[in-house]
Design brief:
This protein is α/β, with parallel strands linked by helices. The chain has 2 domains: 209 residues, Spore Coat Polysaccharide Biosynthesis Protein SpsA, Chain A, CATH 3.90.550; 83 residues, no CATH class. Helix content is 42%, strand content 17%. Strands 1, 2, 3, 4, 5, 6, 7, 8 and 9 form a 9-stranded mixed sheet that branches. α1 packs parallel to α2, α6 runs parallel beside α8 and α9 runs antiparallel to α10. The N and C termini lie far apart (63 Å). 37% of the residues are buried. Keywords: Transferase. This is Glycosyltransferase involved in cell wall bisynthesis. One of its GO terms (molecular function) is transferase activity.
Length: 309
């Protein structure tokens, strides 16, 4: 496997201030048999010039635009990059991520030792302006500690952490859902974990995940609860149905979804189509907390609407 082609797939939209640091970290990889496919989502900043600069510097960088007939957004860009990739292994990055020099070499070495694995995960830190100020995200002392019980934690792994066998990804009906606009990475990763827990974690392989004021993650967090839930409900609905279809809804998972969906009912626009969709969905799957929770929610929402609470 030491000579297998790795396809590095990067969606980009207006990340010109960070692109060079990301692409330099790809160039510095000790594992050299890679292609880097960057799909630009019609950026309006200086991204195009920077991408062409790197394509001229190294032919392993391959630059594309999101096709006009595909939905705007990172999901379509990620999927399109996958469709044109040639590698035996696949790793998505974001265009402001930074990876250490042995990021791919260490994960490929894990595959060499355990050739039947479906994917290998890296370690991850978050940072803002400099990786010297990195902060760990997970307690990763135990190789299988992070992600097995979804109901016990919301810490599903982040997109750039996984190096997949393409043959494994080819078994999915679809990858990133182009119809949802938030929490799409978690929705995909839940389907990955439900299909296979045949993975290992190589803690020497490290991705530095940038969190800054202009990032999509920060923008989402800064939304009102109503806006966050309007964007994220479709993904959480799909996540629940995926886990439910595999009979994986244990008590912890049930409590997690009860808390999420009941909080959504208290904050989504009262009487909107999405409110009613969630209300009947929660009732059908017994996700309302308590026998009279539905009535309580209506009472609270009515009182809020007339500004009595």
């Amino acid at each position: 496997m030491h000579n297998s082609l790795v396809s590095i797939l990067i969606p980009n939209y207006n990340k010109a201030p960070y692109l060079r640091e990301t692409l330099d970290s790809v160039l510095q990889q000790t594992y050299t048999h890679w292609e880097c496919i960057i799909v630009d989502d019609h950026s309006t900043d200086d991204s195009g010039r920077i991408l062409e600069e790197y394509a001229g510097l190294d032919s392993r960088f391959k630059i594309y635009k999101r096709p006009e007939n595909r939905k705007k957004g990172g999901n379509a860009a990620r999927n399109y990059a996958y469709e044109i990739s040639q590698g035996e292994f696949i790793n998505w990055l974001d265009s402001d991520d930074v990876i250490n020099k042995e990021f791919f070499a260490d994960k490929i070495s894990t595959f060499e030792k355990h050739p039947n694995l479906d994917y290998v995960l890296s370690n991850i830190y978050k940072f803002q302006s400099s990786i010297s100020e990195k902060i760990p995200i997970y307690d990763s002392n135990d190789d299988k500690k992070f992600f097995v019980n979804f109901g016990g934690t919301n810490n599903i792994f982040q997109t750039p952490m996984a190096l997949y066998k393409k043959s494994f990804l080819n078994t999915f009906d679809y990858l990133f859902d182009e119809e949802i606009i938030a929490v799409q990475d978690m929705e995909f990763h839940v389907r990955v974990l439900l299909k296979s827990l045949n993975y290992r974690i190589n803690l020497k392989s490290i991705v530095f995940w940038r969190i800054n004021e202009g990032s999509k993650t920060t923008s989402f967090i800064n939304n009102s609860y109503s806006e966050k839930y309007k964007k994220s409900y479709p993904a959480f609905k799909k996540i629940f149905l995926s886990i439910h279809s595999k009979n994986k809804i244990d008590k912890k998972a049930e409590l997690f979804f009860q808390n999420v969906f009941n909080d959504m009912l208290l904050n989504l626009p009262f009487g909107s189509s999405i409110f009613w969709d969630l209300y009947f969905f929660a009732a059908k799957h017994r996700l309302l907390k308590g026998q009279f929770q539905g009535l309580k929610i209506f009472g609270i929402r009515i009182l809020k609407s007339v500004k009595l609470i």
